[in-house]
Amino acid sequence: MISFTISLLALIVGYLLYGKFVEHVFGPDNRPTPAIAHADGVDYMAMPNWKVFMIQFLNIAGTGPIFGAIMGAWYGPKAYLWIVLGCIFAGAVHDYLSGMLSVRHDGAGLPQLVGDYLGKTAKRGMLVFSVFLLMMVGVVFVYSPALLLKDLGGTTMGWVSAIFVYYILATMLPIDKIIGKFYPIFAFALLFMAVALMVCLFIKVPDLPELWSNLGESNRNVPAALLGTTAYMAENPLFPCLFLTIACGAISGFHATQSPLMARCINSERHGRPIFYGAMITEGMVALIWATVSMYFFYYGGWRECVDAQAVNEFLGQYQNGEGKTLIQFFTAPNVVEKVCTGWLGFFGGILAVFGVVAAPITSGDTAFRSARLIIAEALHLEQRSIAKRFYIAVPMFLLAIALLVWQMENPNGFNTIWQWFGWSNQTLAVFTLWTLTVYLVRQHKPYFITFVPAVFMTVVCFTFLLISPMALGLNTTIGYVGSAVALVIACAWFAVWHRKQQQ
To answer: What is the CATH number of domain 1-503?
Structure first.
């Protein structure tokens, strides 16, 4: 619990100190924001600060800081370091500056910002890349909440259909009609879930691994063979997989597609730090809580508190016969959410907590489709005040999404395939955003190291994954790491040459 407590405090201090420094670097002023200067009653609309914060938080939260943290917990307390350092020095900086840069560019979407600073070729590539990513987000965030909701009643297909209808309405209607009204309720559910689990942790004070712990078999209440981490680590080495698995709780390119939505709704630049930087820090706290709960769940037998005795005996019996699965195969991320919430918080608390987890992906899925509509409209120069012109974009977009969803549901490994490529695409989008922000800071003669360092790091992470992942080149890890070192040198050399030209 010491590492967990220190990590929570570090996130708060990071917001107060480093967040203030990043705000000073950008330099917000009193100029009119897009919500005031370009109000259209649909997408550009000033809203109260607390509501904008809630919407931003739910836009970026999704299942990432929950499912990603659960899967990232397999790496042990090292996940704490990535969540804390990644969130303070990379993710929150990424979200704040991308949001504020959009404010300064009349609410422009990410492809337009990339084009302004990295060139037209990068803009065209980012247009296709970001729309593809948003489509994957929408499809993934249809299926995962449906799996949780069906346990409360109904069928998976029935819930998928209901969620899709909601997505269409939320994408088409003015932002204050559905998103502005329901997000505060969803935010309460998600925050209640996180706070309730944190309280449980401090009440239980469970035996948890610390940053300085040796995660050997002697420190676990679960045999190493049953845990299954050896095979998992072999297939998913800590570098780069930890930095792709825990994305939304540390840094996520998806957030840069969402920040412009709220850049069109804030009424003062000076509110940017609590809204953009603050929402990311809050998300980091959610990820930290779930990572801690999951470490106890897996490493120290906390799962025994959340599963009935008969199921435990049957599971252990299968294992003893040599035919059972490891814990990593037995408990999927949605399954962990369900077992922990109902096991720790009771029936009503469990329902509200699961609702919070369900609300998170749904409220990211709807704004993903809304972002895609606006990005496409911006590229086509098609105004969106008219509902007919919104339909021009939305109809083909949702038909494509339905086709992708059908493929996912019919393919036995469809969800995992989309999720893994979503993880890589997500962080690659962060790479482009960070380089865009770095170019902006250089041109403004501001301290660019705050984005340059995370840009280089995430470039190496994404390139290494392409080299060693079985889904890509599948090279030997040694070769992959040598290749990533070469990528590091090339990235730094390229930037040095470009920066020298800027100084001439």
So the answer is: 1.20.1740.10
Question: Omega into 334 within 30° of 0, i.e. cis?
Answer: no
Classify each residue of 362-392 as buried b or exposed e, where b means 16 or more C-beta atoms within 10 Å of its C-beta: bbbbbbbbbbbbbbbbbbeeeebeeeeebeb
Q: Dihedral angle at the C-alpha atoms of 217, 222, 225, 226, nearest 10 degrees?
A: -170
Angle CA 173–191–276, to nearest 5: 65
What's the mean pLDDT in 323-327? 57
Residue 393 CA to residue 391 CA, distance in Å, equals 5
pLDDT of 420 higher than 50:
yes
Q: Which two tokens stand for residue 347?
A: 């029936």
Angle at 431 between CA 104 and CA 370, to 5 degrees: 55
Task: Count other Cβ atoms within 10 Å, centred on residue 205.
Answer: 8
Do the beta carbons of residue 1 and residue 204 sit within 8 Å?
Answer: no
Residue 56: which of 256, 279, 246, 219 has the closest Cα? Answer: 279
Q: How far is CA 255 from CA 175, 215, 280, in A?
A: 18, 33, 9
Q: Work out the end-to-end distance of the chain between its first and last CA atoms, rounded to an integer number of angstroms.
A: 53
Chain segment 249-277, per-residue pLDDT in tens: 899 888 988 899 899 999 999 999 999 99
| Predicted local confidence at residue 488, as pLDDT | 92
309 has pLDDT over 60: no
Contact 229, 74 (CB under 8 A): yes
Q: How far apart are CA 222 and CA 301, in angstroms?
A: 6
Region 472-492: what's the mean pLDDT? Answer: 88
89 and 428 in contact (C-beta within 8 Å)? Answer: no
**Angstrom distance (rounded) from CA 319 to CA 329:** 12
Token pair of 325, please? Answer: 């699965």
Lowest mean pLDDT among 58-62, 393-397, 398-402: 58-62
Asked whether the beta carbons of 375 and 131 are under 8 A apart, the reply is: yes
Q: How far apart are CA 260 and CA 374, in angstroms?
A: 10
Mean pLDDT of the chain: 83
Mean pLDDT calculated for residue range 97-105: 95
